[in-house]
TrEMBL record:
It comes from Daucus carota subsp. sativus (Carrot). GO terms for cellular component: plasma membrane. GO terms for molecular function: ATP binding; ATP hydrolysis activity; calmodulin binding; metal ion binding; P-type calcium transporter activity. The keyword Transmembrane helix applies. It is an enzyme of class 7 (translocase). It is found in: Membrane. Coiled coil: none annotated. InterPro entries: ATPase_P-typ_cation-transptr_C, ATPase_P-typ_cation-transptr_N, ATPase_P-typ_cyto_dom_N, ATPase_P-typ_P_site, ATPase_P-typ_TM_dom_sf, ATPase_P-typ_transduc_dom_A_sf, ATPase_P-type_domA, Ca_ATPase_N_dom. It catalyses: Ca(2+)(in) + ATP + H2O = Ca(2+)(out) + ADP + phosphate + H(+). This is Calcium-transporting ATPase. Catalyzes the hydrolysis of ATP coupled with the transport of calcium.
Length: 1027
C-alpha cells in the first residue's frame, strides 16, 4: 500500500506548502469535508492571514509619520469624567497612540515616564495597589485579546449532518416512507424509512458528542498554551502574575527571553535590546533606553534587563489586533493524519466500486427476473421499494467502506494523549510533536534543572588560598572567621553587585531571593556571611551591566564606589574567568601576582570541585580609572577573589528514566555549558556516560572536520562548555547525516535555533524563556527528564493505538463489503440492511476509535525499539491479522448465508429473516471480540491493562447492550426478529472463536528485522512483556 501513498507523505515539521497542497488534491472520496478537515489548517485562510499580518506590520511602520501628522487629534483625546474622578488624568487611547507613534515630543509634554505614572496614579517604586485592580480594568482596559468564539454542541451536530452519504440516505428514507404509506399505510409503511432516520440520528449524535468532547480538550490545552507569567511590583513587593491579570500602571520586570506583555515605557535597566520582528517584520533589534523608551506588546527581550511601566493593554495594542487575526488559523496536519487520509482515499475508492457493483448486480438480477416472468412492462410500488432498498444498501456500503474515522482517530488519540500529558506536566504545543516523539531515537538534554533538581546551594568555596566546605547544606551556620575580614568586603561586593537577583520580602516579612538558581545560591551564601544586600546596593551606584549569556559565559558590571573610584566585577565559568585574571587577593586583602604554579593549583581546585559534580564559578574584580564609556567592560587584568562550588543534586528517578530510554533504543546525550569534569560526573551518576562513550568540549567539537564528525558523533554522550550553536550543529548532524529522529531540550533564547531544527523541540517550563517556549513543540512544565521519557511513551502509545484501530477497521471493512457483494451476486439479496450497516459503521468508526485510539500508555511500550523513518505504517503483522480474521469471519458468515436454514434447522415463512438476524448478530459479535484481539498486534496476552481502560470497557458494554436492544426490541426498524437463547449463545461462541484464531495467527512468523540496541548488540525480550 505504501506505493500508493507517495502523495500522502509530508515531514512532521516545516512542511512545504507544495506537499500540503499535493495531498489535499490527492484526497478523492470524502463523505464530509467539514468534519474530515476540521483539524487541518485551511491554506487559503492562512495565506489571507499572512496578508493581514503584513498589512498590520506595514501600518505599524507607517504609524510614526501618520500619527505625528495627526498631533492635534492626539491632543483632542481627553479622559472621561468617570476616569478623572477615579484618579486617571490621561485617556487610554491617547497614551496608546503616543506609544505606537514613539512620539518623544508628546511624551515630554507629559513630563516623561514619571509624568505619565502620575497621570495614571501609580508610584514607580511601589507599583499598583492590589485594591485598585478592578477600577483600573474598568477604566483603562483588561489585558485580553478578542478570540474566536467556541463552537456550540449543535454546530457539531450540524457539521455531522453534512455527510453526503447520510444526506442521500435521508432522502431515500423520506421516499421510502412516502411509498410505504401509499402502499402499506400506517404504521407498517414507515418502519423501513423511520429505521434509517433513527439510525442516522444515532450516528450523528454519537459523532457530535465525540467531536464536541475533543473540542473541549483542545480548548483546555489552548488555554494552557497561552499562560505566560511575568514579574511585577505591586504593593511595594515583587510578585509573579499572569499576563492576563496585568493592568495599566503595573511595573513589569523584563529579562532576556521574556515577551513584552503589554505596551509601555522604559523606567530603568541595562543594555535592553528588543526584537520587534514578530510585530513590525523588521529583523534589526532595537535599543531601549531613556531616549527611546517605547516598548510594544508581543516583542521579545533579546538582551539585557529592565523595568517598564504598562501604559496600554489588550485590544488597544497592535499585538492584540494581530492576535485577533491569528486566532482564525488552524493546526498543521500531522504525518499520520495525512497518511491515513491516503489510506481512507484508497479504501473509499475500492468501496465505491463495490457499492456500484452491488447495486448493479442487484438491479440487473431484479430486471432479469422480471423479464423471465414476463413482468417487465408491469411495475408496482413494491418494485420501486425494492430498487430503493437496493440503492440505500449500496449507499450504506459506501458509508461503511469509506473509513472517514481513520484520520479523525489520529486527532482523537492525540487529544487524549495531550490531555494525559498535561496532567503529567507536559504541554504539547503542536499535535505532530506528540506523534513524532514516539519515533525519537535520540534525546539531547540539558543538565541543569532537567537532570538535576535546579535547587542550588554553595557547597564548597576556595578563598584566601584554601578551600572551605559548607556544613549541613543550606542550613549551615557560616563562621565569619572562615573568610578573612579583609577579604569579606570584596567577596560581598562581588556577590551583591554583580547579580541580576533581588532580595525581596513578602507581606509576612519573610525574605526570599528572586533570580536564577545559580545567582540565588550565591546571594543566599552572601546573606549567610552576614551581608546586607539592600545596604550594598544603596551605597554603590551601578554604571554599566553586561548580563550573562550562554556565549560569553560571564556576567560583568561596572560600579561607582562611595569614595569616587570605579570598579568592575566579573563572574562566570571558572576557567574563562581565571584566564582573565593576573592577580589574586590574599588573606590580608592584598593583591598578589598569579604565578603559573598558583594558576595550576587553582585549576586543580576547580577540577576537584568539578569531579565532585559541583558547578564552579569564579568571582573577580578590577579597579578602573574611567567609566568605560563607549567601550565594553574590561576582559583582562582582573583580580581573583574566590572559586565557588555550587551543588545541584541529580533528580530522583533520572537514573531509572535514562535506563528506560536505553532499553527503548533511545540514546541520551547531555549537552551543557558546564565544566567537562562536572558534566562527566553528573553523566556517570545518571547512567548517560557509559564505557566507550565520548565526552567532548564545545570548542573541540566545533573545530572538527566533517569526516571527523562523521566518525565521532554517534559516540558522543556528553558535550561540555558548549555554545547554543554547538547544540544546533550536533542536532543538524544527527538528523541529516545519521538519520536520527532527534528530541532536544532548551531553556535559553539562544537555544531557539536548535529547538526549531530538531524533530521535537522540548522547552523547559520553569527555567525556559518565552522565546524558547515559542520555538518548542512541547513544554516540560516541571523541567524533569522523567517527564520527557513520559512524552516518548505517550508518543509510542498514539502510533500503536492508531495501528490497532486501523487493523480493526480494515477487518470490518473487508468482511462487510465482501458479505454484501458476494451475497448480492449469488443470491440476489444483501443479508445486511442499510440500518444494520449504519450500526456496524458506528461500531467500527466512532466507537472503535473511542475504544482503541484512547488506550492508555503502559511501560511495555518502552521495551521495543522506536519506529524508524519511512517504515510502513500498516505492518506485515497487521496484514496477517487482518487476512486471518477476515477469512474466518467470511467463511462462517457465507456458510450461514447460503446454508443457514439447514444448519440451524429452520423452516417456515420467518426462516429467512431469522437467518439474516443471526448473521447480523454473529457479525457484530465477531467485531466485539476482534476489537479485544486488536488491543495488541503481536502479543498473545491481549487482556493486560484492559480492565484499567474504562473507556474500552464502556464501549464494549455499550455495544453489547445496544445490540441486544436492536435485535430484541427494534426489529420493526432494523429488520430483525428476537432470537432464541441458543442462537444468542451460538453468535457469541462464533465471535469468541476469533480469539483462539488470533493466538494461532500471532504464532505465524512474519519477516521482520531484529532490532539492535543503541550500542549495537541484540536486545532480547524478557519478562511478561515478551508474551
Amino acid at each position: 500500500m505504501e506505493n500508493y501513498l507517495k502523495d500522502f507523505d509530508i515531514p512532521a515539521k516545516h512542511a512545504p506548502e507544495e506537499a500540503q497542497l499535493r495531498w489535499r488534491n490527492a484526497v478523492g472520496i470524502v463523505k464530509n469535508r467539514r468534519r474530515r478537515f476540521r483539524h487541518i489548517v485551511d491554506l487559503a485562510k492562512r495565506n489571507e492571514q499572512k496578508l493581514k499580518v503584513q498589512k498590520i506590520q506595514e501600518d505599524l511602520r507607517l504609524v510614526v509619520t501618520t500619527i505625528k501628522a495627526a498631533y492635534k487629534f492626539i491632543e483632542a483625546l481627553k479622559p472621561s469624567k468617570e476616569a478623572i474622578d477615579a484618579g486617571y488624568n490621561i485617556n487610554p487611547d491617547k497614551i496608546a497612540k503616543i506609544i505606537r507613534s514613539r512620539n518623544n515630543k508628546v511624551l515630554e509634554e507629559h513630563q516623561g515616564v514619571s509624568g505619565v505614572a502620575a497621570e495614571l496614579n501609580v508610584s514607580l517604586d511601589e507599583g499598583v495597589e492590589t485594591t485598585d485592580l478592578p477600577k483600573r480594568q474598568k477604566f483603562l482596559g483588561v489585558n485580553r485579546y478578542t478570540e474566536k468564539p467556541s463552537k456550540s454542541f449543535w454546530l457539531f451536530v450540524w457539521e455531522a449532518l453534512h455527510d453526503l452519504t447520510l444526506i442521500i440516505l435521508i432522502v431515500c428514507a423520506v421516499v421510502s416512507i412516502g411509498v410505504g404509506l401509499a402502499t402499506e399505510g400506517l404504521p407498517k409503511g414507515i418502519y423501513d424509512g423511520l429505521g434509517i432516520i433513527l439510525s442516522i440520528f444515532l450516528v450523528v449524535m454519537v459523532t457530535a458528542i465525540s467531536d464536541y468532547n475533543q473540542s473541549l480538550q483542545f480548548k483546555d490545552l489552548d488555554k494552557e498554551k497561552k499562560k505566560i507569567s511575568v514579574h511585577v511590583t505591586r504593593d511595594g513587593t515583587r510578585q509573579k502574575v499572569s499576563i492576563f491579570d496585568l493592568v495599566v500602571g503595573d511595573v513589569v520586570h523584563l529579562s532576556i527571553g521574556d515577551q513584552v506583555p503589554a505596551d509601555g515605557l522604559f523606567i530603568s535597566g541595562y543594555s535592553l535590546l528588543i526584537d520587534e520582528s514578530s510585530l513590525s517584520g523588521e529583523s534589526e533589534p532595537v535599543n531601549i533606553n531613556e531616549k527611546n523608551p517605547f516598548l510594544l506588546a508581543g516583542t521579545k527581550v533579546q538582551d539585557g534587563s529592565g523595568k517598564m511601566l504598562v501604559t496600554t493593554v489588550g485590544m488597544r495594542t497592535e499585538w492584540g489586533k494581530l492576535m485577533e487575526t491569528l486566532s482564525e488559523g488552524g493546526e498543521d496536519e500531522t504525518p499520520l493524519q495525512v497518511k491515513l487520509n491516503g489510506v481512507a482515499t484508497i479504501i473509499g475508492k475500492i468501496g465505491l466500486i463495490f457499492a456500484v457493483l452491488t447495486f448493479s448486480v442487484l438491479t440487473v438480477r431484479f430486471l432479469v427476473e422480471k423479464a423471465i416472468h414476463h413482468e417487465f412492462t408491469s411495475w408496482t410500488s413494491v418494485d420501486a421499494m425494492k430498487l430503493l432498498n437496493y440503492f440505500a444498501t449500496a449507499v450504506t456500503i459506501i458509508v461503511v467502506a469509506v473509513p472517514e474515522g481513520l484520520p479523525l482517530a489520529v486527532t482523537l488519540s492525540l487529544a487524549f494523549a495531550m490531555k494525559k500529558l498535561m496532567n503529567d506536566k507536559a504541554l504539547v504545543r503542536h499535535l505532530s510533536a506528540c506523534e513524532t516523539m514516539g519515533s525519537a531515537t535520540c534525546i539531547c538534554t540539558d543538565k541543569t534543572g532537567t537532570l538535576t533538581t535546579n535547587h542550588m546551594v554553595v557547597d564548597k568555596i576556595w578563598v584566601c588560598g584554601k578551600p572551605e566546605e559548607m556544613k549541613d547544606g543550606e542550613n549551615h551556620n557560616t563562621n565569619h572567621s572562615d573568610v578573612s575580614e579583609n577579604v569579606l568586603p570584596f567577596l560581598l561586593q562581588a556577590i551583591f553587585q554583580n547579580t541580576a537577583s533581588e532580595v525581596v520580602k513578602n507581606k509576612d516579612g519573610k525574605t526570599s531571593v528572586l533570580g536564577t538558581p545559580t545567582e540565588s545560591a550565591l546571594v543566599e551564601y552572601g546573606l549567610l556571611l552576614g551581608g546586607d544586600f539592600d545596604a550594598q546596593r544603596r551605597e554603590i551606584k551601578m554604571l554599566k551591566v553586561e548580563p550573562f549569556n550562554s556565549v560569553k559565559k560571564t556576567m560583568s558590571v561596572l560600579v561607582a564606589l562611595p569614595d569616587g573610584r570605579t570598579r568592575a566585577f566579573c563572574k562566570g565559568a571558572s576557567e574563562i574567568v581565571l584566564g582573565m585574571c593576573d592577580k589574586v587577593i590574599d588573606y590580608n586583602g592584598e593583591t598578589v601576582d598569579l604565578s603559573e604554579e598558583f594558576v595550576q593549583n587553582i585549576t586543580d581546585v576547580i577540577n576537584g570541585f568539578a569531579c565532585d559534580a559541583l558547578r564552579t564559578i569564579c568571582l573577580a574584580f578590577k579597579d578602573t580609572d574611567n567609566n568605560c564609556d563607549g567601550i565594553g567592560l574590561p576582559d583582562s587584568s582582573y583580580t581573583l577573589i574566590a572559586v565557588v562550588g555550587i551543588k545541584d543534586p541529580v533528580r530522583p528517578g533520572v537514573k531509572d528514566a535514562v535506563r528506560t530510554c536505553l532499553a527503548a533504543g533511545i540514546t541520551v546525550r547531555m549537552v551543557t555549558g558546564d565544566n567537562i569534569n562536572t558534566a562527566k560526573a553528573i553523566a556517570k551518576e545518571c547512567g548517560i556516560l557509559t564505557e566507550g562513550g565520548l565526552a567532548i568540549e564545545g570548542p573541540d567539537f566545533r573545530n572538527k572536520s566533517p569526516d571527523e564528525l562523521m566518525a565521532i558523533v554517534p559516540h558522543i554522550q556528553v558535550m561540555a562548555r558548549s555554545l547554543p550553536l554547538d547544540k544546533h550543529k550536533l542536532v543538524t548532524n544527527l538528523r541529516s547525516i545519521h538519520k536520527e529522529v532527534v528530541a532536544v531540550t532548551g531553556d535559553g533564547t539562544n537555544d531557539a535555533p536548535a529547538l526549531h531544527e530538531a524533530d521535537i523541540g522540548l522547552a523547559m517550563g520553569i527555567a525556559g524563556t518565552e522565546v524558547a517556549k515559542e520555538n518548542a513543540d512541547v513544554i516540560i512544565l516541571d523541567d524533569n527528564f522523567s517527564t520527557i521519557v513520559n512524552v516518548a511513551k505517550w508518543g509510542r502509545a498514539v502510533y500503536i493505538n492508531i495501528q490497532k484501530f486501523v487493523q480493526f477497521q480494515l477487518t470490518v471493512n473487508i468482511v462487510a463489503l465482501m458479505i454484501n457483494f458476494i451475497s448480492a451476486c449469488i443470491s440476489g439479496s444483501a443479508p445486511l440492511t442499510a440500518v444494520q450497516l449504519l450500526w456496524v459503521n458506528l461500531i467500527m468508526d466512532t466507537l472503535g476509535a473511542l475504544a482503541l485510539a484512547t488506550e492508555p500508555a503502559h511501560e511495555g511500550l518502552m521495551n521495543r525499539p522506536p519506529v524508524g523513518r519511512g517504515v510502513s505504517f500498516i505492518t506485515r503483522a497487521m496484514w496477517r491479522n487482518i487476512a486471518g480474521q477476515s477469512i474466518y469471519q467470511m467463511v462462517v458468515l457465507f456458510v450461514f448465508n447460503f446454508a443457514g436454514k439447514q444448519i440451524l434447522g429452520l423452516n417456515g415463512s420467518d426462516a429467512t429473516i431469522i437467518v439474516n438476524t443471526f448473521i447480523f448478530n454473529t457479525f457484530v459479535f465477531c467485531q466485539v471480540f476482534n476489537e479485544i484481539n486488536s488491543r495488541d498486534i503481536e502479543k498473545i496476552n491481549i487482556f493486560r491493562g484492559m480492565f484499567s481502560s474504562w473507556i474500552f470497557i464502556g464501549v464494549m458494554l455499550a455495544t453489547v447492550i445496544f445490540q441486544v436492544i436492536i435485535v430484541e426490541f427494534l426489529g420493526a426498524f432494523a429488520s430483525t426478529v428476537p432470537l432464541s437463547w441458543q442462537l444468542w449463545l451460538l453468535s457469541i461462541l462464533i465471535g469468541f472463536v476469533g480469539m483462539p484464531i488470533a493466538v494461532v495467527l500471532k504464532c505465524i512468523p512474519v519477516e521482520r528485522r531484529v532490532p539492535k540496541h543503541h550500542d549495537g548488540y541484540d536486545r532480547l525480550a524478557t519478562g511478561p512483556e515478551a508474551v
